[in-house]
Amino acid sequence: MATRTTVVKRTRGAIELLHVRFADHELLTYASALAFQVLKSLIPLTLLGLALLGAVGRQDVWTKHIAPALKSRLDPPVFHAIDFAVEKIFASNSAGLIAFSALVTVWFVSGGVRGIMGAINRIYEVKDERPFWVRWPLSLGLALCVVAGVVGATLLVEAVPKQDGALEILLVAVRWLGALAALIAVTGLLVRLAPVRPRPKRWASAGAVLVIATWIVASFAFRWYVTSFANFKTAVGQLTVFLVLMAYAYVSSIVLLVGIEIDELLREDASSEERGILDVLFGLGR
User: What does each of the 286 residues of the chain score in pLDDT, given as a tens digit?
Assistant: First the structure.
């Protein structure tokens, strides 16, 4: 049985290995670029989400849940302007608005997907020499999958009608499991199809689970901050919320790249010529 000193030494070695890989692959730079792309995509994604809520007849998600929370934290003129805009979205031609917002969202998200392509290829230490007529359609297709997965997971959790009694408990479990499966599938698609040389399927799962689990925790932490402490009524409060949102996007990007890096280290553990993270932690690599 490993002693405490051995465990500490191996844990430190794994952290140092991840740190070295992050520095060598410049992943913090890629994470910054991804965070910017995420922030840029939020406005059309929000527009798409509101249009879809109107299309499925779930305006009550706004009126009963989101609007009351915003009303207590915004100045009345600001809240009424936002509420008026949302009501106009609900009253508009949903089909045209959904199509427009979906196209804009996919276009913006595709920029982030191309950033992920570059980051994964850097992690895999391969050069992307694919022509733009291959990379751009691929990034648009993957962006469409990402948008569908994120919007589908959100609607599954928020827009499915609530029930009473034991049926509601079952539906809550089904909704969250379905949303989790959608997000894991999207992450797996990105890891599998984005790089020049895809890795075997078995190496596109452990990191995906880590990414989704950590992202859910970070999302709940961000939601807790917004609902408990955020103050939109002052300039300082608005700036703080924006900074927290930037930090959330940045942390989410880092978590994604950490998961992909861990997948690659696990793959290296299966190679007799390379030393991966399991070899550092437990001596199981070779």
Answer: 456 676 667 677 777 777 788 788 888 899 999 999 989 998 899 888 888 888 877 888 888 878 887 787 778 888 888 889 888 888 876 788 888 999 999 999 999 999 999 999 998 888 888 888 888 999 999 999 999 988 888 888 776 666 666 676 777 788 888 888 888 888 888 888 888 877 665 544 566 677 778 878 888 888 787 777 777 777 777 788 888 888 888 988 888 888 888 877 777 665 555 554 445 444 444 4
Residue 2 lies in a domain: no
In angstroms, what is the C-alpha Rg of the chain?
A: 21
C-alpha closest to that of 193 among 117, 130, 264, 122: 117
Please check whether residue 115 is in contact with residue 30, taking contact to mean a CB–CB distance below 8 angstroms.
yes
Q: Is residue 19 part of a domain?
A: yes
Provide the number of structural domains found in the chain.
1
> Which helix (H) or strand (E) element contains residue 76?
helix 76-91
Q: What is the pTM of this model?
A: 0.79
Q: Domain residues for 93?
A: 7-281
Residue 286 maps to a domain? no
